[in-house]
Predict the 3D structure of the following.
Amino acid sequence: MSTSRLASLKGIALLSAPFRRMARLLSFDVRLERKGRRIGIRVAAPPPAPPPPDSSALETHKSTCIALKKLLDTHRQTRRVMRHLGYVERALAARGQSALNDLPVEVIAKALKQFETLVINWSDPLLATLRSQMAVAVLRRSPEDDPPDRRSEFYTDSRLEVLDDSPSAFMEFERAFQAQNSRS
């Protein structure tokens, strides 16, 4: 390497050194402490890395997700009809068991009802365990315990609430709709 090239690399290293030091300082937890009239700066050590997740727990979680996916795959329209259960399935796949703590109680309760109507035989231990975890999540929290940022706000102008209706009401609506379209 030529001398001029080496000198330019040293110059770049000297110019970038303050930026590297600043980046390293910003990665630490810096706090201001006051003792009487004196103010001091304390640099805390970085928090310890979380322990790696247990491999058996990961395998159980994967198996539970697979069992729920198989159950929902039995009929083509299941996820479309049982939207809450499909939402819980996606949340469990993405975030694991912590999803049951993060989802609103109303969603978990509706998904649990849909889950119980879908499964007839609870001999599969994975599905039975998931059912009990969902029931515990519902019992542990009431809708009033949910913070306002997690609670669904259906009564706003920007949201739509969909409710189930009886087949006779649907048929009556369909007749009225067809009568109105035939007049046009």
In short: The mean pLDDT is 80. The two ends are 86 Å apart (CA to CA). The longest helix spans residues 3-26.
